[in-house]
Amino acid sequence: MNTRPRLVYERWTDPVAGDILEAGDLELVRLDLSASAEKGWAALETAHGYQVATRTDVASVADGTQWLVGQGLVDRCPQLLAVCSAGAGYDVIDVDACTRAGIAVCNNSGPGAEAVAEHALGFMLDLAKKITVSDRALRAGPLGDRLALRGSQLLGKTLGVVGLGAIGSRLVELCTPFGMEVIAFDPYVDEATARLRGARLVPLPELLAQADFVQVTCPLTSETRGLIGAEQFSAMKPSAFFITTARGPVHDEAALYEALVSGGIAGAALDVFHEEPPQPDNPLLHLDNVVATPHTAGITVEAARDIAVATATQWQDIFDGRMPPRLLNPEVWPRYCDRFHEILGVHPTARANAAAG
């Protein structure tokens, strides 16, 4: 290459990513969110790649959203060729702005699916068996009538999955021993594929009306923002539970609160919120029929390492001139290749690295 590629990152999910990338001919530059904005821009304005900081990372610093990939960052970084999100979600990236600028956008879907799917199953068991509710009651004491803590079972219940991607499909597999009927809503999956994944496709209103557990596992996009609101919660059964490991803005928090306090639905389990981390005075956190975690569904030792390895190998593919395996805007490829050649002196090939997962 005519120029040594510069990759800016905020942090890796596991140090192994740095170990892998440092073995190559890359310049790795860490974006220090605690440093001045001038230092941050000095790094990014000459970057060829950017491993994007998460929304939770930037929430703790002033003007942190400037480090997410919006139109402003794209305009200030003329050498930028590719941006990647840390996990499956890519709502921290304006894909349209990147595509217009000839920037490739990638995520890391797949490696963290097991962790999130297991977390979602844990939420189901917690709500059905009233595990957290019972724990709170026991600690508060005196216990009183323990029959008031009677829960239910998963066996024979109906699971409704909104988003039948890697996470949703793995969740279906994990629920197989419970003999659940599985229905799914996903406009990007055909009926034959859904059947292979153990689910029956239905329209969203039908899923909401039939499911005992509504599991949201879809990405946040312009299509899914506000997908679950007051109308959708009112369509659910009063005995049903709402669970999300997606992104907060997919559902309406005020509408969810109203459904929970009015008895419109039985309970909810939330790993994501509109504001992250949520403020302690968030009304949802003060309801007994809500179980919540601080966006930790995908955070396990195993998932962190798997994501880091996938992240590093994808960046290796990018700077070795190969098509990245998790390219989200393939229509950018012709212009991206021209820019890559102009900036780094090499013309990429559409041949992906078969070993990359």
TrEMBL record:
It comes from the Bacteria. Residues 68-329 form the D-isomer specific 2-hydroxyacid dehydrogenase catalytic domain. Keywords: Amino-acid biosynthesis, NAD, Oxidoreductase. The keyword NAD applies. GO terms for biological process: amino acid biosynthetic process. The keyword Oxidoreductase applies. Residues 121-297 form the D-isomer specific 2-hydroxyacid dehydrogenase NAD-binding domain. One of its GO terms (molecular function) is NAD binding. Belongs to the D-isomer specific 2-hydroxyacid dehydrogenase family. This is 3-phosphoglycerate dehydrogenase. It comes from Mycobacterium kyorinense.
